[in-house]
Write a sequence for this structure.
């Protein structure tokens, strides 16, 4: 990561200024400004923000529990898992870095933070799942060892047991 230091904390909608956040994606900007508070109140997502030294939000991500069908995983993965129809996962709903901070390691650091939270959680998850919004985002997750679901190339997962292990 760059020299800049960030504090990663749960979003406090009353304290953090979300109005200036700009990651170049209008839907991701709008979600942080307008919708995330409602999703947090209803326990549909938790949002974590990286706060820069000047108090600005440099990046954010959301986490929620989810499940995927065992049958949707690649055969070489599913054949090693228990035969329950559904597999518990943690869903990285959104991940976005402000334009001023992109390309400096913050996206990778926030992804690592999300994976650590999922691993530490008292709620069991076999993997982290993400729906990448486009090919660039898909490449970012592939770069971090995420694996595509067969037939759904923008949907990817990473078994939590593999975090921190060589690919
Ligand atoms: C995609 C995004 C989250 C990446 O964050 P970032 O801070 O710019 O990326 P980082 O600087 O942390 O990159 C970390 C690593 O990922 C790699 N990387 C970054 N973007 C990449 C991409 N599109 N494809 C492949 N690798 C990528 C970097 O080279 C770096 O590799 P290294 O650790 O081996 O040196 C950020 O650019 C962003 O918010 N984009 C707009 C919103 C978006 O597309 N969100 C995706 C959610 S669906």
């Amino acid at each position: 990561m760059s020299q800049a230091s960030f504090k990663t904390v749960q979003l406090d909608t009353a304290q953090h200024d979300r109005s200036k956040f700009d990651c170049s994606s209008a839907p991701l900007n709008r979600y942080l400004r307008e919708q995330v508070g409602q999703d947090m109140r209803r326990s549909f997502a938790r949002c974590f923000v990286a706060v820069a030294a000047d108090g600005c939000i440099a990046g954010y991500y959301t986490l929620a529990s989810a499940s995927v069908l065992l049958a949707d995983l690649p055969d070489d993965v599913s054949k090693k898992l228990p035969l329950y129809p559904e597999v518990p996962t943690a869903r990285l709903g959104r991940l976005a870095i402000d334009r001023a901070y992109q390309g400096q390691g913050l996206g990778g650091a926030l992804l690592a933070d999300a994976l650590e939270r999922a691993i530490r959680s008292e709620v069991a998850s076999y993997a982290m799942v993400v729906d990448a919004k486009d090919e660039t985002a898909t490449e970012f997750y592939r770069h971090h060892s995420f694996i595509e679901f067969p037939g759904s190339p923008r949907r990817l997962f990473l078994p939590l047991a593999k975090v921190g292990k060589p690919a």
Q: What stands out?
A: The longest helix spans residues 26-41. Residues 133 and 154 are 7 Å apart (CA to CA). Strands lie at 7-10, 46-51, 57-69, 86-97, 127-131, 147-149, 152-159.
